[in-house]
Amino acid sequence: MSEVEAKTVPDFTLRNTPLLSRVGADRSDHLRTDVDAAVEGWASAAVLRVDNRGQVLIVDGRVALGGTADLGDTPPDNAVFLGRIDDGRHVWAIRSPLVPPGEAADATVLDIRRTGRVFDDVSAQLVSTATALLNWHDNARFSPVDGAPTRSIKGGWARINPVTGVEEFPRIDPAVICLVHDGADRVVLARQAAWPERMFSLLAGFVEAGESFETCVIREISEEIGIAVRDVRYLGSQPWPFPRSLMVGFHALADPDQEFEFKDGEIAEAHWFTRDEVRAALDVGDWSSAAATESRLLLPGSISIAREIIESWAETD
């Protein structure tokens, strides 16, 4: 039995809820089919605008919400219902050029793929939900069965074929993301071929038909870097609406004596890094802010569940 086979997987959990998994608004799903309630609440509703690049406006750490006065007396066909916020207002989202509310002249344009800590919990939930739904509508305007045009129903949470009555619902593509470690002080980080030098992250991949999450972890790691892992343990999950993924996080144990083999060409290089090396890289920031430094290792930004997993592992003893 090798040393790694004899190890017991350490107690390792996420320190914090991943940023896009935070909950701060009431989804009020019962209102999606209550047309009268939707129309009644529309006049005083708040509107989140998301542009074609997936960007939003923020003011003082909150997503900027406008009014409905310029959008008509009822929700437009492209609007999606997000729920209610603390003051009781309904919140809808639309795909639209960004228009600062009148009192928000200092609003900042933000792409959530590049940051996340500036958001409060309400904003994180609204933006991640709006982005996922609007991306789905952009690509679901025709029936996958017969190609007939579909229309939005249920507050934007479904589309229907008006001829057949068949309903379609938002598609979610599950993907696993896994921190591979040796049960002690080392972790595997990898760089995709398309990434700049020094930019490393965890291994990830989409779940295939007929496959469990755990089986996917084992297969993806074997395909990407050629090593076997065991003791696959669940950590947490996070929506990643770019365009429609759900990232499911794990950690797993591997023998560092195994040779890396880059089988599918997706990974350019992978290395075992010590906990001290990872901590040093975390101290210099994420891979956008730290790119100008001499750090050997650049790590993902805070919006990604990868960052939370890496930070949580780095803080364990």
Automatic annotation (TrEMBL):
SUPFAM superfamilies: Nudix
GO cellular component: cytosol
Biological processes annotated in GO: NAD+ catabolic process; NADP+ catabolic process
Reaction(s) catalysed (UniProt annotation): a 5'-end NAD(+)-phospho-ribonucleoside in mRNA + H2O = a 5'-end phospho-adenosine-phospho-ribonucleoside in mRNA + beta-nicotinamide D-ribonucleotide + 2 H(+)
Gene Ontology molecular function: any one: metal ion binding
Residues that span the membrane, as ranges: none
Cofactors named for this entry: Mg(2+); Zn(2+)
This enzyme's EC code(s): 3.6.1.22
Keywords in alphabetical order: Hydrolase, Magnesium, Manganese, Metal-binding, NAD
Gene3D superfamilies attached to this UniProt entry: 3.90.79.20, Nucleoside Triphosphate Pyrophosphohydrolase
Family the UniProt entry places it in: Belongs to the Nudix hydrolase family. NudC subfamily.
Name of the protein in its database record: NAD(+) diphosphatase
